[in-house]
Amino acid sequence: MTSISEFDSKKLLHEHGLQITNEFLVANANEAVKAAESLGYPVVAKLSGAKIQHKTELNGIRLNLQNSDELKIAMRDLEDIGAGNNEFLICEQIQGKREFIAGYHIDDVFGPVIMFGLGGIFTEILSDVNFRLVPCERRDLESMINEIKANSLLGPFRGEGEISIEHLVDALLAISECGLANPDIISIDVNPIIISDSKPIAVDALVVKS
Amino acid sequence: MIDVERIDALFNPKGVVVVGASTHPGKFGFVALHNILSSGFDGPVFATNPNKPEILGMQTLERIQDVPPGVADFAMICISPNQIMDALPELAKIGITSAFVVSGGFKETGENGEALEKQLVAKAEECGIIIAGPNGQGLVSTPVNLCSQIVSPYPPRGHISIASQSGNILSALMNLSRLSNIGIARAISVGNQGQINLSDYLDYFLYDSETAVAVIYVEGIPDGRRFYESLKSLACKKPVIIIRGGSTESGAIAAASHTGSLASDFLIFAAIVRQAGAFLVNGVESAFNLAATFSTQPLPKGNNVVVMTTAGGWGVLTADAISGTNLELLELPDNLKALIDSLLPPRWSKNNPVDLAGGETRDTIPDLLSVLLEHESVDSLIFLGLGIQGNVARSYFESPYANEGTERMANFHTSQEQRYAESIIAATHKYRKPVLVSSELSIADPNNAGPKTLRDHGFLCYDSPDKAVQCLSRLVNFAEAQDR
Fold first, then answer.
1. Is A170 in CB contact (< 8 Å) with chain B?
2. Of the segments A122-136, B187-201, B349-363, which one has the largest average pLDDT value?
3. Of B355, B412, B424, B442, which sits with the fewest C-beta atoms within 10 Å of its C-beta?
4. Cα distance from B326 to chain A (closest Cα, Å)?
5. Domains in chain A, please, with CATH?
């Protein structure tokens, strides 16, 4: 069982049509600043590399960095935490109040399934997730999305517009197609998916191969 | 995957042989024969016993080859596992094409049993016999009056079919069928599913014209995809109700991902049932109520429901139960209100629930039912308060103060209850719209003329309105899926 790095996981999913954050892999603070200038502030800096699987637990994510000074401080922290790791990810900061989780998994009994549900820090506690066997039709994915308990989040929310179900279905199809097209993939986590301007953007992803 | 026509041989046999009939009323071989004879099976019945005793007035035969060939095609097998192997070729010779193996001692007992079961299936295949079970309680097929099981009960004839991984759950569903007088078509305790599995029975229920609704009790599923495909094909055409036993909350052990750890057995199963268009319920009673609803009610054209009540509080609770479902408590159109005004005194609720507020006279209820159901904006109706007059009748009948006056009134109440129930059934048929009746008196006093008349006509009376609302909600779900 091997995990693919966040950068490579997102790249692979993007090839199947998933909308992901604009981002660059960098080796040091200078490269990070260049990347941030090309992306535009604010940015996010993260520990990267195949060995780094639990960025959050490592405290390896710095959000909402507004300028090069903040970015440099963040990079210094991450270099310390990474202890010798010289791969970092600089991503655009996605603004959005709603977070979802999506995934792909091979169930022992039913085979490949796609998952969609409520993201954020209470994901495991609320377990507000739903599944469909894949491959399936767009209609199945639409009902899968609408059946979550927190489905009122799909409508207008705190100044943000209604979520484009069409784009959400596209995102789930991309994840499902990525999994089905690569038989060695045993699971995919896309967590979180943040809704920005009514559309879903994959902010982090993890692909696991057998 | 097994040809449905071969499975049909189990449920529509020409003639039956009980292999291993017993003289002892405590043994399977006696009960099976007794049930087949007493249910009045349509075709000839034979029984074998090496000692040739007479059982239940019937002369048993010493050996299988003594059964005239070509007369029976189904065998109910009640002999020990090692005897079955030798019996199968003999059964094939007399023309048996299908059998139910009651006997245990197979897969359920461990590795040796599993090997024996494989041999059994291979032998059956070799002999051209299809086998249900082993280790099951039997089957019921009311269209041919066949009760080939080692337990009770024999349910009334109807259009609900059941395949169950538990014999007890099967019996429980059939007990509810007897209680409610809403009948069964085919019912099978699938046993170890050595040769025919649940998915095969789903395929058969799709093919079988006697089956209008299917109920499945599932514990484990070996081939999930196949089950899903069969379930989906059936659920597109006929309502399928699923009870799941042994659901666990635990996710995949040592899951490699969030998705894996969230993917609990129960959540996945519930999702595939929805995806297939079937209904997952959480118990035997809900399963039976829903199956009975589908087998007796027409499908509604939309989700607008009217609640008609002679009982105020029940009306309020019903309205509460409706909110939060896919049902819409119809806002009464003005022309409908005007029609109701013409039938009721001014104190009626002027709203939905249509609360009669005690304003009914002799013909109000049948007349109002027609007016409501005839209106184009009404898709379905929930009727509350059946049995209230019958309850008074009971008090009068049982009263220490009974006199000619109370008796006359009690008889009037009783006949009114009967009329109400009959008018409900007639209106359902006439207007082709669902009418669901709820009254706690259906269990509090089963002899109350209102609920009793419904039951005598094979029409369900729910014991609480939230149950009626749940069932109606799913009728709407199914109707909508049919329209897509």
1. no
2. B187-201
3. B412
4. 13
5. 22-92 (3.30.1490.20), 99-209 (3.30.470.20)
